[in-house]
Design brief:
Rossmann fold; 8 helices; 7 strands
Length: 265
Amino acid sequence: MDLRTRTSPWLTRRRERGGAALHVYVFAHAGGSCGEYLAWGDLVPEVQFWGVQLPGRSVRRAEDAHTSVGALVGSLVGETRFAGPFVLLGHSFGGLLAYETARALRRLGREMPEQVILSSCPAPHSFGGAEPARWLHTLPDDDLITAAEARWGPLPEQVHGDARLRRLVLAPLRADIQLFETYAHAPGPPLDVPATLLCGTEEQDRLAGESAGWGRWLSRVTRRLALPGGHFYFREDPGPLLDVVRMVAGEVREARSTRRPRPAS
């Protein structure tokens, strides 16, 4: 199989940024689409944004969704090469996938991300652990919608009245909720890459306890920032988040410029 970035079914982009200083691979929230994240590339032209496209949705909706994080990440890294220098950025559940992807790359001895940006994402040991009777992914559609909106905010209004759209929205959402509800974190050495932890100011208190534990699994948390807004703080104004991306891009450039070249083998 050709493992070059451009041929991977896992990756999508809006346009090619020739000579981009940094590649940012974005993992969407549970049930989310890459589209809204890829639009950021128009605002930060020096960065090539890639969306990590999971099976069971959008152009891959005919494929079966994965039922475990381990299998999903294993397939992703087995079929994809990440162009460097690169950063992994994940929002909410996507943060967990970004973290596990970095761990899988380390296990395989592959090139590691220069940094990771984890947005509105609890520490990995906070996922899973609920009794099956409390699982959301097994709820009937109406109950799942109610529970999801209470926890993460409103779904598109049409979901309440359009049966076709409801199916398109709920199928990937249910699949992703199953992934994190059945996830079991396997402890290991902390990731030794710089990490930025973000959240919205309106969710800061709720997430404080769940995200505090990241220090156990990330050895270099360089900043923790609360940006204006709620769980999807970047939807009304992506500017503060993109300022963080620009900051990270500058740090990567500086780090690479001062890094000693490897001796010829």
